[in-house]
Amino acid sequence: MTHTVHPYAHRLGIIRDWRSRWFGVKSKYKENLKGDVLIFEYLKKRLKGCFVNSTEIERSAKVFRIIIETSRPGFIIGRNGEGMNKLRDDIIRLMRRRKLSLKEELKIDVKEVKSPESSAMIAAQMIAEGLEKRMPFRRVIKTMIEKAYANRDVKGVKVTLSGIMGGSAMARVETKKVGRIPLQTLRADIDYALYEARLPLGKIGVKVWIYKGDIFDKDKSVKT
Predict the structure, then answer these.
(1) What CA–CA distance (Å, rounded) separates 162 from 203?
(2) Nearest CA to 214 among 192, 183, 177?
(3) Helix pair angle (137-149, 120-132), 10° resolution
(4) 70, 78, 107: which is closest to 91 by C-alpha?
(5) Kind and range of the H or E element at 42?
(6) What DSSP string describes 177-224?
(7) Is-contact 85 97, C-beta < 8 A?
């Protein structure tokens, strides 16, 4: 029997890297892991609506760095950096409230995503936003796939919605695919995202796969 494996985890160490990286950290493993999970969950709620592609954490002996990739950096940075300062202070207070020591210097880097339509997470958030605005789900899927497939580096897009849609009383699954999605090819650069749209009748799960070609040179193209 086969099992469905997350495309990201399936390619760790081959064409992908960990989203939480520690360098020369001598403190307790349990405490660091708890802090990373806490920050990931907090930022997911705090930055909702900012179209965040990914969040990464880098720990070293002196610096604790959070890297945020988003298509709306101005929403996070704020005017004159006020948003960044407030976000940094809130994270420090959160760690102290959970009794987790943060002895390193906290730095937050915000990177802009140049092509948001080719990012699976941002595409899933756009679809969820359209569904929450009561737009027809077939039109939302078609429009998003056309925008993503129009990018030169995208070779395949697949979108799956599951839940109560179109005013029906029973949940169902709708899938639309364009191009190729070679899930079993480990060198295939497949971006995957799962997001939820919250509607009055319940949640609608949004899954997006975006295939961006194969990666052959491991040393030069390991992605985060």
Answers:
(1) 9
(2) 183
(3) 150
(4) 107
(5) helix 29-46
(6) EEE---TT-TTEEEEEEEEEEEETTEEEEEEEEEEEEE---HHHH-B-
(7) no
Q: Determine the pLDDT at residue 2.
A: 60
| pLDDT tens by residue, 100-154 | 877 888 999 999 998 999 999 999 999 999 999 999 999 999 999 999 999 999 9
| 177 close to 212: Cβ distance less than 8 angstroms | no
**Tokens, residue 121:** 């997470």
Those residues whose C-beta lies under 8 Å from the C-beta of residue 5, and which sit 6 or more positions away, are none
Q: What's the token pair of residue 36?
A: 């990373």
Residue 220 has pLDDT above 70, yes or no: no
What whole-number distance in Å separates Cα of residue 70 and Cα of residue 60? Answer: 24
Distance CA 150, CA 179 (A): 12
Q: Is the pLDDT of residue 184 over 60?
A: yes
Residue 64 β-bridge partners: 59, 106
The kind and range of the H/E element at 88 are helix 82-97
Q: Where are the domains of the chain?
A: 7-112, 116-214
Give the per-residue pLDDT at 7: 87
Domain 116-214 has CATH 3.30.1140.32: yes
- Phi and psi, residue 50, nearest 5°: -90, 5
Question: Per residue in 205-218, pLDDT tens?
Answer: 999 999 999 988 65
The CATH number of 7-112 is: 3.30.300.20
Partner residues linked to 65 by β-bridges: 58, 107
Tens-digit pLDDT profile for residues 6-23: 888 888 988 899 999 998
Could you tell me which of 185, 205, 186, 203 has the C-alpha nearest to residue 195? 205
